[in-house]
Amino acid sequence: MRYTGNLGLKKPEGTDVVNIDDLNQNFDILDIEVVKVASPTQNGRMSAADKVKLDGIEPGAQRNTVTSVNGKTGAVSLTASDVGASPTGHTHAFAEITSKPTTLSGYGITDAIPASQKGAANGVASLDGSTKVPTSQLPTASTNAPGIVQLNDTVSSTSTTQAATANAVKQVNDAVVAHSADTATGAHKAKNIAVEDLNNRFTATDVEGVLNELFTFANNGKSSIAAVIGSPATSGDTFSQLQTHIQNAKNTMATNLTAKGVSASGTEALQVLASKIENVNTGKRWAKGTSFMPNGSPYSFTVSGLNFTPKTVIAVATGDTTGYGMAVAKDLSAYSKNPSWFLNTPTNATLTINSDGFTLFSAGRYGVNYDWIAFE
């Protein structure tokens, strides 16, 4: 078995039995040695940092020991004047600087805004003499948009463009707190709350008084309605109960009218139902009057506007006692007290029945009034 001269690695000879452990030991030694970095006390690889330093040394450079600097020896501490430099903090007035740039870009400023955009639309705001942005260049606040706003220290303003100060808000809050505390002394009772009656509808000036007036008004109205309705309605009934009483009465009226041959419904107005009562047939209807018989063509008079169709008509000339001025029609047949007069001369004595009256053509007397009576 032989060994290398530097690392002592094992080198089996031809007659040696190869042992795997020997090979592993060789690799372990190589793995350690290959990463060793050179130092003043041991050999090794050069580090990357040392390589950079080495590359930075000029060819022919020498390492010399400095014994003094500018006449100073030992641990030398140099000042700016030792090397001809300006001291720390040294300044120059701007006017003393020469070869200054003439443009902003010469100073490295590339995002400057042109003066033409100062105070212009879509530009930048300008400053006034107090280094503040003029209010003319600021938007005014409103209920729809933000902006500058004037403070208002009052608690009675109705402005929608001014803002309340903290003092005004505190005054309102103090009043609310004080009012809330009044609850214990009855400040929220109806009798202690005033009413603003703009239309002068009430005598009372507080909520309790107004409520009493409203109750009295409603109760009096309810009592009056109950009195008009009569039994079974009473003044103690509610408005809903009174409504039911009225509707029941209307239904009864409609039922009775229908039973008497007059069409009616409980949904009709009360006055409409009351007006239909006169249409109830209580027997034969009749009417009477006086009409003038002209002494000339057509020798007739007509009666119209009756609320029935007459079947029997009696007409007598005023003051006539002879009977020759009398005409009678019954069941649409014409005859007279003196049949020879009317029946023998029908062209001179005819009675025509109309749907709402009649027409009498001559009855032996002309130029006089006729008293007449007509029956259904």
Features:
376 residues, 5-stranded antiparallel beta sheet, 3-stranded antiparallel beta sheet, 7 helices, 14 strands, elongated
- Helical content band: 25-40%
Average pLDDT metric: 82
Judged by helices, strands and strand pairing, the structural class is alpha+beta
Strand order of the largest sheet: 7-14-9-10-11
Strand residue content:
15-25%
Weakly predicted, low-confidence segments: 331-348
Oligomeric status: single chain
* Secondary structure tally, helices: 7
- Molecular shape: elongated
Q: Could you give the count of β-strands?
A: 14
Cα end-to-end separation: 166 Å
**How would a textbook summarize the main sheet?**
5 strands, antiparallel
Helix-strand pattern: EEHHEEEEHHHHEEEEEHEEE
Cα Rg: 66 Å
How would you explain this protein's 3D organization?
By secondary structure, the protein is of the alpha+beta class. Helix content is 26%, strand content 15%. The protein has seven helices and 14 strands. The protein has helices at residues 20-33, 48-56, 166-181, 207-229, 239-259, 270-276, 339-344, and strands at 2-3, 10-11, 68-69, 72-73, 150-152, 162-164, 286-293, 300-303, 312-317, 326-330, 333-335, 350-354, 357-361, 368-375. The strands form five sheets. The protein has a five-stranded antiparallel sheet. Helix 4 (207-229) runs parallel beside helix 5 (239-259) and helix 5 (239-259) runs parallel beside helix 6.
